[in-house]
């Protein structure tokens, strides 16, 4: 191999390496989701309920969803506001490629100065085994109070619990949730059901002057910050903590298509991934899969022609071909050439979805004797 040939091959490998590294970076920073694209619902279906976008495989109404488990309803109040509802009464705040954020369910137990329970509400939520939803590990089970034990019981009667205590106002530190007025517990992956229980050692008799209620909830960990004494409830008004959590801390649900793995789903007729997309196994341990547009495409991979391309390759003036590495490449007007080197010629413009920088490279084809 002569020096000119060696230089040509070095340039070829460098160009391929640049494109590969750039593509890897783009995959990491990709911002397109199933909710962003020209086509996100089945034809004729409603795209929004209030300000919430509803992308396929979800849908408002039976003919607009992938199946009945992805059906949502849009309820309109007397004041004209709209709420997106999952099932009978679970309000949906957001839908993403892998998750739903839904309304919280808060448990509480309140006592009088003598230690008698005067108000109590213990929450539970269950998704049937065939449901596409499970509770994400982005959630934490959180207990707030100064004389409380809270736990969630999951299938097989396994219990995840946490004790919180404090003897005075000075024990409570804003921003800390490590047992003094606030405690948190991780939950297992793939959880579909939980039931909340609460108890108190002294029924708040020793702390009743500044904390008469204990609270427990499952919610997104990154959306909750313990505010100290205000969260104990009595310094402002009784429902302050409840209202704050309801307004700002959702429950995160993981979702997936069915219970089959990608390998199994590829063999069935009702496979959900469309052209120019690929299958990704769910990591919840429950089976199921999701779809994602291939590199160079963006949009909704569950819809026919939902993944739209973002590659644009062409050849210099006078050359023929499609300019694509995996296509016909670019063919020079000269009759002397080796077909395997055709790829190295031409301009190829790679436009990653959601990325403003362009990677542009050119390589001159040389004849190899």
Automatic annotation (TrEMBL):
<feature type="domain" description="Wall-associated receptor kinase galacturonan-binding">
    <location>
        <begin position="45"/>
        <end position="99"/>
    </location>
</feature>
<keyword id="KW-0732">Signal</keyword>
<dbReference type="InterPro" id="IPR025287">
    <property type="entry name" value="WAK_GUB"/>
</dbReference>
<dbReference type="GO" id="GO:0016020">
    <property type="term" value="C:membrane"/>
</dbReference>
<feature type="signal peptide">
    <location>
        <begin position="1"/>
        <end position="24"/>
    </location>
</feature>
<dbReference type="Pfam" id="PF13947">
    <property type="entry name" value="GUB_WAK_bind"/>
</dbReference>
<dbReference type="GO" id="GO:0030247">
    <property type="term" value="F:polysaccharide binding"/>
</dbReference>
<protein>
    <recommendedName>
        <fullName>Wall-associated receptor kinase galacturonan-binding domain-containing protein</fullName>
    </recommendedName>
</protein>
